[in-house]
Amino acid sequence: AEANKHLDYDVLIIGAGLSGLYSLHKIRQLGLRVKVLEAGEAEGGTWFWNRYPGARFDSESYSYIFSFSQELLDEWDWTEHFSPQPETLKYIQFFTKKFDLKKDIQFNTRIKSAHYQSPDNSWLLTDEAGRQYSSRFIVTAMGILNQPTLPDIAGVDDFKGQAWHTARWPADHSSLQGKRVGIIGTGATAIQTIQEIYKMCGTLTVFQRTPNWTAPLRNTKISKEEMADIRKRYPIIFKQCLESYSCFIHVTDGRKTTEVPRDELFAHWEELYQQPGFAKVLSVSVDVATDHEANRLYSEFHAEKIRARIHDKVLAEKLIPKNHGFGTRRVPLESGYYEAYNEPHVKLVDILENPIERVTEKGVLTGGVEHEFDVLIYATGFDAVTGSFGAVDFQGIGGKKLRETWSNGIQTYLGLTVKDYPNMAMIMGPHQMFGNIPRSIEYAVDWVGDFLEWARDNNVQSFQPTQEKMDDWYRHVERLGEGLLANEVDSWMTGVNKNLAAKQKRSLTRYNGPAPGYRKECDAVKARNYSDFVLS
Ligand code: NA7
């Protein structure tokens, strides 16, 4: 602390979402001088920004939250198995208040640059308004999906009606009631939005480039009695999460798909289909994610389910993905998504058949037809994972720009640190375990907190990994990704966003699991007293 005296803080945290809030709580307990700098006007991160109608968890509420505080678990009641965004935001506000976090958060502070100062091993951050902040260490807690991208379609600025990205849903938007609404995109966000807003729109036109696999969420309310039971089961719930491949409560089927007798297999799938939540994605055999034939069989099972729900046979085929198998992209869970298309005022425009020519003053032009709208909604996704890093001018030793360092491929050690960017720890950085995100956040923050405690006790002024360790880690991540069908497909999980000017090549952006293996690697580094790092 003595050596940091000339600096504003010991630790600066960028972002006040779940990662940043828990980092603050953890690091403050070490007696370090710490501050969170947050771009938004309030805490919540993903759950602050994404307020579109229908936004909600599709993981079980009680598994997708902080587990570290028994008091917090005791004091908070969930009212739905899959919490809607307003309730999740309330939970985050409750957490923030309970641990009195706000006094160490500065809102409305968008960091534009973060430059490492080699002479004294510190960081200098500058915000949009030109204000500067210095610290020994920084923790990036910027989220993996926080840079919305608009489609790279001509004329986006010409539209004279109202238009917005789903992650910027206006707080005071006039109701969509009776309006002519267009929505571009059919990803997880679009699916949640469409199934909600079609009920109020006068007409709704969905522009689909790639259909997505999606299956029933089966959300229900949680009664007081049920909540009491869940509370008792918290230790079991978190143990299940800890032991599973991607930190969810659902357990994978150990059998090989092709070795199970067909009737037994379909009976099992039917049973999973009827269950709430991700069972239908995560409780099938592992080979559904790795074996083309197993995946084809399971995809066909779901295709039949979709056909049974859509009245128009031609339309049904358009809504069934043909070029990627079930689970190879993020499978969002829905509540009445397909039924929306049976309504006469809901129209699907397949833009592979009828490419969008441009956005006009009045709407969207496809194949010579102008679709006129009052409101145009962009559910077009994010510059995922590395996008939040790209939005800040990170410069490491010798002014080396992180944007450039990663432009030839992402390199990290443990997904937590990067060579030449000393004293920077990333929560939910690339090559970290994603899966059940709050579980991953909790682990990463605890790891970083322990590291900073050790650094404090050992008077460490700077740390960074070696190139060799980063190379080893990359090979390790690559090996784990081998054979996964998901890595053969373009998606935000494989780092592809076709809207960006510099078209991205498919790359490994995440640790492909299993989560227990990830934690084992990181635990071992701690047990070695962080000797993997160059320390000074
Ligand atoms: P996604 O999953 O990246 O989905 C974006 C959607 O927008 C997807 O259907 C895209 O089609 C479509 N899109 C993007 N750009 C265009 C253009 N230019 N023209 C037509 N269609 C376009 O983002 P989400 O917000 O839905 O979900 C992100 C994650 O948030 C999700 O996985 C959850 O975990 C939470 P494409 O597939 O590229 O053909």
TrEMBL record:
Source species, domain of life: Eukaryota
Record flagged with keyword Transcription regulation: no
Keyword Transmembrane: no
GO molecular function: flavin adenine dinucleotide binding; N,N-dimethylaniline monooxygenase activity; NADP binding
Keyword annotations of the record: FAD, Flavoprotein, Monooxygenase, NADP, Oxidoreductase
Protein name, UniProt field: Phenylacetone monooxygenase
Source organism phylogeny: Eukaryota, Fungi, Dikarya, Ascomycota, Pezizomycotina
Residue span relative to the full protein: 377 to 912 of 912
